[in-house]
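Exercise 3.2. Students should predict the tertiary structure of the chain below and write it as structure tokens, then compare their answer with the key that follows.

Predict this chain's 3D structure.
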Amino acid sequence: MIISLRRGDPARVGPYRLDGRLGEGGMGTVFLGTSPGGRQVAVKVIKARHAADPRFRARFAREVEAARKVGGFHTAQVVDADADAESPWMATAYVPGPSLRNRVLRDGPLAPDAVRALGAALAEGLAAIHRHGLVHRDLKPGNVILSPDGPRIIDFGVARAADADPLTADGAVVGTYAYMAPEQIRGEPSGPAADLFALGCVLVYAATGNGPFDASTVPAIVHRVLTETPRLTGIPADLARAAGACLNKDPGARPSTAALIAHLAGPESARLPDVPVPPTTPPPGTWPAAEEPTLPPGTVVATKEEGTPAPPGAGTARRMPRRAVLAGALATGAVALAGGGGALYARRRGGRTAGTGPEPASTLPISPAATLTGHAHAVDAVAFSPDGRLLASGSAGDETARLWDVATGRTVRELTGAGVRSAAFSPDGRYLATGNEDDTASLWDVATGRRIRSSRAGEHGVWSVAFSPDGRTLAGGGSGVRLWDVATGATTTLDTGPLTRNRVGDRVPNLVLGLAYGPDGRTVAAALDGYGEEGGDGAILIWDVATRRRVAVLRGRTEENLALAAGPDGATLVTCGGSEDVHVWDVAARRETDRLSGHLGEVRAVAFAGNGTLASCGEDRTVRLWDLAGRRATAVLTGHTELLTTVAISRDGRTVAAGGGQDDKTVRLWRVRG
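Answer key:
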């Protein structure tokens, strides 16, 4: 799926005009581009925050070199690259078609004959890679494109020569756990046989929709890969033999690509050894396979698990020490993540473990209670009515907002004519406000679905809206902050100083992506995203509403702000963006006082319940609930298939909604204990 360019995306990279987005991963973003001669290409651009890291540059240069070496039918051919650019990029021939992951998520497992053909084609592709002295090291469903002329293997971000030293730190593990060979997990030298192990996992996924070692936590995956028999139930005997042979714990006992191709083409004439098939009942804690929120041709995040939701309190898993992985692997089947167990996966900063307080007692994630379908494009905004009975969702792509009955999951009404970026209910529940893609804010009558008025709010969209506690004023944020009188529509603009001014050519200015009133309505706070050059940073601005004077500018170590939420007592603000942490601010002290760690990808959205429960979500596809007073995570909500960009929690803290991604056009609802 191709989606439109976002605010801040470049219009050109090198000689290529960018026409849309194909996907986004931990290391870079992939765009659909057009050459001066009209040729379509996929352009991968390293994210700005990684471009200054010599290790990422070296890894990207290695990816370009590896893809150039193989080329041909088996991969997307590299046509251009600049690894030394300010933002390094690579252009490959555009290969249309879904990834294997997206195909299975959309249509279910492949038929046995299709799996056999897929396996033979991928084995042929691996053979070509290995002939060039390379090991891919991250073959997975998201890195297989099902093009009209046959499967293609993409993403050489962690590929390397079979005899080369790794570029990562000593003892670091690189790859995707649910598709990683035992020797790779242990940090031992891994050659072509590791790719055959991953191929066995991919075959099982294609045939069943689940990986052979899926589990609910990283330690559980590691334990199963290292010690347990793969789950091969529901697969024809010849495919089970092929996958089982690839999944042998001993790399020397795995088949060659030639032997695997021969078996898949003629199972009886070139039969591989039989493998034991375990019982049909999966072990407790099994969770459906899921991958990075990346569309092809994407890029991987080193050492991030695939096949499970992120574990509670996991911190970052991009570079996990070898001893931590082994400790998790050697633990008993009931791996404890509460207390000390969770510390194995916490990121360290300045000698102390980031994250505060104990982790949730349960290691099992909470599944969605309902999935709401109806939007034609990604969901960009969600909001609960004050009584929690209605949920509003909005999409910039399909230009609609929907009102849902939370109890039944049914659509109450559809509001059309607005590409929705943000949404909020008035305190009395009578009105819904939406911030729109067309630079307007709209006020809707909830009872009738009638749009009362729309008011222009500047340029570059309205990315945040918030009602004052008395419901008389609506604040909207985009290229600045405006206050509307709800009764009359009269508008006042708040002074942001130089921070949101567009002073560099036609660059998009520093935008307001989050707004929140204080509980007494006397102040309003805005979070600036940090985009741009001159004056662009992730500041929080606070104004006195009565005088319209700016009374505070809060600055911390955050690179950018993607969202803002205010605690019920008004003493605390939280922001997110630019990291895997949630940033906690003391309003009176005017400073950042803490960070909450646990997410395995960038945090994209935050929201408070009336009881003080904090919800956060992001690139790891999970929602985490936090007890802010105790600085501890209380629950992990899973089930979404792509990155999450918007979250809401009901006033009583018992219902959570989230949406996002690119192909997943749904809203997930979770029921939690109040």
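Discussion points: Residues 100-154+169-346 form a domain with the Transferase(Phosphotransferase); domain 1 fold (CATH 1.10.510.10). The chain has three domains: 12-93, 100-154+169-346, 370-671.
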